[in-house]
Write a structure and sequence with these properties.
Layout lengths: L4 E5 L3 H13 L3 E5 L2 H11 L3 E5 L7 H11 L4 E6 L4 H9 L4 E4 L4 H31 L10 H13 L6 E4 L6 H10 L8 E5 L5 H9 L16 H4 L4 E5 L6 H13 L1 E2 L8 E2 L3 E6 L3 H6 L5 H7 L2 E4 L10 H11 L7 E2 L1 H9 L5 H15 L4 E2 L6 H4 L20 H15 L4 H8 L3 H10 L18
Parallel strand pairs: 1-2, 1-3, 3-4, 4-5, 6-11, 6-12, 7-8, 8-11, 13-14
Antiparallel strand pairs: 9-10
Length: 465
């Protein structure tokens, strides 16, 4: 097993010898240097896992050693030795990236413990890099299922935009895999080693979203008991993915625009600008052009986001992907290699409309995994909505079409209202009547702000009949 190598830099020869003896006794390989310049030369030639350096030396001081050591090896840990009177300097060194400082004369047990902790951190960082690399491979473009022509075209675009700093707007219905595409862009970009931070703008209450994105300072509002870093700062050096950005209120859109244009932000309760280095990816299932006309979305932000639009097709428009996706989900859900899907069950999967898209397909197969017997998933193992969809051709359109035209969203809202009223607001029966899942009905009720008369809250899930 390779021995951990520690570099000791101090212009006090007696202290160097004491440190060398103590560290060698612990089983470490020890290099020593009498000056910062000599130490950096050794680090460059020999390498080291950890540097222990005095903060105050003739010539190059410990702060300069720290800065240049990290330029030579960003992952090397540095511990600062300091005498009384130079504590302030040691604290500055920690702010600059040193792991810790130890006061002289040092306690042997304290030194051993600090070194052990520094090496544990280095190992965690190494594992983190390895995991990021593994994730990058796992989210490689060849791992995204794209047998259909539309999805192959999307992946070609991802390959072209990933290496750039371009802002990308990902469009598509809920459940089509917009976040997966965003992760693929990040994983195949120069920022892959940095964080990927996903924020669902529709899932966070409006009054909390600004603080969540930009952070806040202590006392900014009731309950702000300490400073808090926001998601933008957490994504420093990486990518932030703003999902459902169309749901963001216009006042907050101004701050997003500023981040895009000036690369700065202000925490809630503070007016000092903070520079941020992040790539912004955004997604929506909303028609932003229509939202602009309604005054719900800023036109200038739209053009900043819409540099490269990627429109993810719904699953019903890429049926060639259904079979490989189904097999992929079964494997991911831990299915036996012997498990197969019966031909009539596959036909049902391939002919169903999938209003919930890929997410609904995964849920349907998870259910089938629970109910199947033997080595075959049969038609009866699939959800009722999938195995017996209503024939659209046999249904007469229950509305007349006005000459002046009408909004598809208004028609959808009216049909949902009528179905709910017809079934006394029983969501399960209304969903079956409409040929959709109850989950999809709940989503569309929330989308259209449909609430049962007398109810004050959004629709909640009820007992399945």
């Amino acid at each position: 097993m390779k021995r951990v190598k520690i570099l000791v830099i101090d212009d006090d020869e007696s202290l160097r010898r004491v440190l060398e003896y103590n560290l060698a006794e612990e089983g470490y390989a020890v290099l020593t240097a009498a000056s910062g310049e000599q130490g950096l030369d050794l680090l460059k030639k020999e390498g080291a896992d950890l540097v222990v350096t005095d903060v105050r030396m003739a010539g190059m001081d410990g702060l300069q050693v720290l800065e240049r050591a990290h330029k030579l090896d960003p992952h090397v840990q540095v511990i600062i030795l300091t005498a009384f009177g130079t504590i302030e300097m040691a604290v500055e060194a920690m702010k600059a990236g040193a792991f810790h400082y130890i006061s002289k004369p040092f306690n042997r047990d304290e030194l051993k413990l600090t070194i052990r902790k520094a090496l544990q951190l280095k190992e965690l960082e190494r594992e983190n890099v390895a995991l990021r690399q593994e994730l990058r491979v796992r989210i490689g473009l060849d791992h995204i299922i794209a047998d259909s022509r539309p999805m192959k075209a999307i992946l070609e675009m991802v390959q072209r935009v990933a290496p750039t700093e371009t802002t990308v707007l990902i469009l598509g219905e809920s459940g089509t895999g917009k976040e997966l595409i965003a992760r693929a862009i990040h994983a195949n970009s120069p920022r892959a080693g940095g964080p990927f931070v996903a924020v669902n703008c529709a899932a966070i209450p409006e009054h909390l979203l600004e603080s969540e994105l930009f952070g806040h300072v202590k006392g900014a509002f009731t309950g702000a008991i300490r400073d808090r870093v926001g998601r933008f700062e957490a994504a420093e050096g990486g990518t932030i993915f703003l999902d459902e950005i169309g749901e963001m209120r216009p006042e907050l859109q101004v701050k997003i625009l500023r981040c895009l244009e000036e690369r700065t932000l202000e925490r809630v309760g503070d007016n000092r600008p903070i520079r941020v280095d992040v790539r912004i990816l955004a997604a929506t299932n909303k028609d932003l052009a229509k939202a602009i006309q309604a005054g719900e979305f800023r036109e200038d932000l739209y053009y900043r986001l819409n540099v490269v639009p990627l429109s993810i097709p719904p699953l019903r428009e890429r049926r060639e992907d259904i079979r490989p996706l189904a097999q992929h989900f079964l494997k991911r859900l831990g299915a036996s290699p012997r498990l197969t899907i019966a031909p009539d069950a596959f036909r049902a999967l391939e002919t169903y409309e999938w209003p919930g898209n890929v997410r609904e397909l995964e849920n349907a197969l998870e259910r089938a995994m629970i109910f199947h017997r033997g080595d075959v998933i049969t038609l009866n193992d699939l959800p009722e909505t999938v195995r017996a969809p209503r024939s659209r051709e046999a249904v007469a359109l229950p509305v007349s079409l006005p000459e002046a035209g009408l909004s598809l969203e208004e028609v959808e809202k009216e049909l949902i209202l009528r179905a709910l009223q017809k079934h006394d607001w029983n969501q399960s029966r209304a969903a079956r009547y409409l040929g959709i899942t109850r989950h999809t009905l709940l989503y569309r009720m929330e989308k259209h702000s449909i609430v049962r008369p007398g109810a004050r809250t959004p629709p909640e899930e009820e007992k399945v009949e």
